[in-house]
């Protein structure tokens, strides 16, 4: 019997079509009520805002944000409950492609989970969670992240590693995400402003190398380089590795990397707003 038939036979729906006041009890809780009940079960964790949903990225994939700065003291938060809540949140979206953003700033000795918990968490996320994860952005990574990567590398799958991208500056996210939809914690915004750095370190490193070793190289910004080598260098940059251009013995490689960076900016250096005034000035 379906719920309506059950309700009729129990007397909630009378033969003349009248409905008793308690018919909702017979039909059972609605989906919204069930979601509210489940959410309420994790109110001890959800109230911190550690995990949030931020619309879709530019590819139409759901964006899930994890903010380390919102982790309370480990003495207050039950990390087993945190893991359960993370899985509960992901379970609502993993059937389709999705993206995760991890804001690392704010993780400290007071709120940092144990390494055993981190390893256990990774093992808990089986193929169901990893299959449709298309990108994991690690924002403002520190040496702690790179040490973790080295420690866990033996147990991390190659496919999973290819989905991880290091992001040193918030503006780098604009290429892949609708930035106005992001729920960026205020401490993360503050530290970005305080740093005063607007040029990515790899760009500074590349320009310094070119200035020091390549200014006299003929066709430095005209000639290209091996596509496979350029891809290899880009992969190292995206993984947060140090790039030693001297190892490649080809001064055109850093020049190509710089050109690709400038071409792929979401907005030109001189900005669209200044394009017309600059064009008029140049025309004069």
From TrEMBL:
| InterPro entries (UniProt xref) | CRAL-TRIO_dom (IPR001251), CRAL-TRIO_dom_sf (IPR036865), Rho_GTPase_activation_prot (IPR008936), RhoGAP_dom (IPR000198)
- For region Disordered, the annotated ranges are 1-41
An example Gene Ontology molecular-function term: GTPase activator activity
Q: Note one Pfam family from the annotation.
A: RhoGAP
Q: Which PROSITE patterns match?
A: CRAL_TRIO, RHOGAP
Q: Where is the CRAL-TRIO domain?
A: 41-186
Provide the GO biological process annotations.
Answer: negative regulation of endocytic recycling; small GTPase-mediated signal transduction
Query: From which domain of life does this come?
Result: Eukaryota
For this record, the Gene Ontology CC terms, alphabetical, are: cytoplasm
The record's SUPFAM superfamilies line, in alphabetical order, gives: CRAL/TRIO domain (SSF52087), GTPase activation domain, GAP (SSF48350)
Instruction: Give all residue intervals belonging to the Rho-GAP domain.
Output: 189-284
What's the protein called, per UniProt? Rho-GAP domain-containing protein
Which species is listed as the source? Answer: Octopus bimaculoides (California two-spotted octopus)
């Amino acid at each position: 019997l379906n719920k309506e038939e059950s309700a009729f036979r129990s007397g909630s729906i009378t033969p003349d079509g009248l409905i008793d006041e308690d018919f909702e009890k017979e039909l059972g809780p609605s989906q919204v009520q069930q979601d509210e009940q489940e959410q309420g079960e994790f109110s001890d964790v959800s109230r911190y805002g550690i995990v949030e949903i931020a619309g879709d990225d530019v590819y139409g994939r759901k964006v899930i944000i994890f903010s380390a700065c919102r982790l309370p003291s480990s003495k207050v938060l039950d990390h087993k409950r945190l893991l359960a809540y993370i899985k509960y949140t992901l379970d609502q979206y993993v059937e389709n492609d999705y993206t995760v953003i991890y804001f690392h700033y704010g993780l400290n000795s007071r709120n940092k989970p144990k390494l055993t918990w981190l390893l256990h968490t990774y093992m808990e996320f089986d193929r169901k969670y990893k299959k449709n994860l298309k990108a994991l952005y690690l924002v403002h990574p520190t040496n702690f992240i790179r040490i973790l990567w080295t420690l866990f590398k033996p147990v991390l799958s190659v496919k999973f590693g290819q989905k991880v991208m290091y992001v040193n500056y918030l503006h780098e996210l604009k290429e892949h995400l609708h930035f106005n939809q992001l729920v960026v914690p205020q401490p993360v915004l503050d530290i970005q402003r305080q740093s005063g750095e607007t040029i990515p370190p790899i760009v500074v490193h590349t320009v310094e190398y070119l200035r020091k070793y390549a200014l006299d190289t003929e066709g430095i910004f005209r000639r290209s380089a091996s596509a496979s080598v350029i891809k290899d260098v880009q992969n190292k940059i995206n993984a947060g590795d140090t790039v030693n251009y001297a190892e490649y013995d080809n001064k055109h490689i850093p020049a190509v990397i710089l050109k690709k960076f400038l071409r792929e900016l979401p907005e030109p250096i001189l900005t669209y707003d200044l394009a017309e005034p600059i064009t008029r000035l140049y025309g004069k």
